[in-house]
C-alpha cells in the first residue's frame, strides 16, 4: 500500500479533480426534505439473518439525545427532519447504565444526535464513571465543547472523538448546514487542555467535497498529538444517496498519505472499534486510522449494542430491529432490562453473511437518531 504506484495513482488527474470540485450537494434540504425521525423498531422481529454466533455484547453506544445543532448532509436530510418523543430522563438512564454493567458491558460511548446538547450530560458522565466501566468515551461535533471539556474530564470521561470534516470555514458551513468552524476549533483546544487520555478526529471523506484535505487534516491533527481517522461514507441513511458519486475508499485514502506512513499492515485496537491504524513515518508514536464499512464490512467481530434516546436496545446499526426497554428503565428495574437485552442480542444479524451498512435496510435508518 505504501508503493509509489498507489500514491501516483491517487495523484493522477489532480488538476482535473480540482476543476470538478463542487459545493456539497444539499441532499433533501429545505421543506421538501421533511420526514419523520421517529425511530421505528420491530419488537422481536427479524429484519436481518440472525442466529448470531459472534461475541457477547461488551461495548455499547448510547444515544442520550437525538437533537443536533448540525445537519451534516450524509446524516440528515435537512434541519427540519423532526425529532423523536419519549426521550429517557436521567433517573431512567441510571437504571439503564446499571443494567448494562451487570450484563457484562465494559465499554461505553455516549453519542447523539449531539450528546453535549443534553442539559445533564456532565451528570450522566459522572453516573457512568461511578459504575466503574473500564472505558468511557464520547463522540461530539465539539460545538459545545469549549465550555464542557473540563467539566466532562472532571466527571470521569476518559476519551473523546470529535467529528470534523474540513478545516475550511465556508466548506464547514456547507457540510454541516450552518456550523461554525471557529467554535469547533475552540472546543478542540479546550479538550487538549483538559487532558483527555485520547482525542481522535473523525472525518467522513467525500470525493469532490473534502477529499483534497486528507493530508492537511492528518498533519494538523499530528501537530496537536491527536489521532486523525478517515471514514468511508457508508450507504446508510442520507449516505446512501452519496456513495455512488462521492465514495473514497480507505485504500485510496491510505495511498494519498503513503509518503507520511510506515509501510506496515493496518491494525485495530482490540476492543476499541473497527478502525485500523497505521503509524506515521516521521514519528511512530503518531497514527492515522481508517474506517471502512462500504468497501469492507466488519460485522463478524462486532460486539456492540446500541441504545436509542428512547430506550430501544438495538443490536445493529444497519437495521431498525430492536427491543424497547424504556418501561423497565422508567420502573427502575435493571434485572428486567437485562432480560430485554438478551432478547435484543438474539436479533443480532449473523455477521458471517450479513454485510452491515451495505445491506438494503441501512438506507432507511436514521443515523442521527441512534448515534452512528
Q: Can you give keywords for this protein?
A:
disordered N terminus; alpha/beta; 372 residues
Q: Give, in spatial order, the strands making up the sheet with the most strands.
A: 1-13-12-11-2-3-4-5-6-7-10-9-8
Largest sheet: 13 strands, mixed
- Estimated share of beta-strand residues: 15-25%
- N→C terminal distance: 28 Å
Sequence stretches where pLDDT stays below 50 over 5 or more residues: 1-46
C-alpha geometry: globular
Number of strands: 13
Structure description:
By secondary structure, the protein is an alpha/beta fold. The protein is built from 13 helices and 13 strands. A 13-stranded mixed sheet has the order 1-13-12-11-2-3-4-5-6-7-10-9-8, covered by helices on one side. Helix 1 packs across helix 10 (250-256) and helix 3 packs across helix 12. It starts with a helix and ends with a helix.
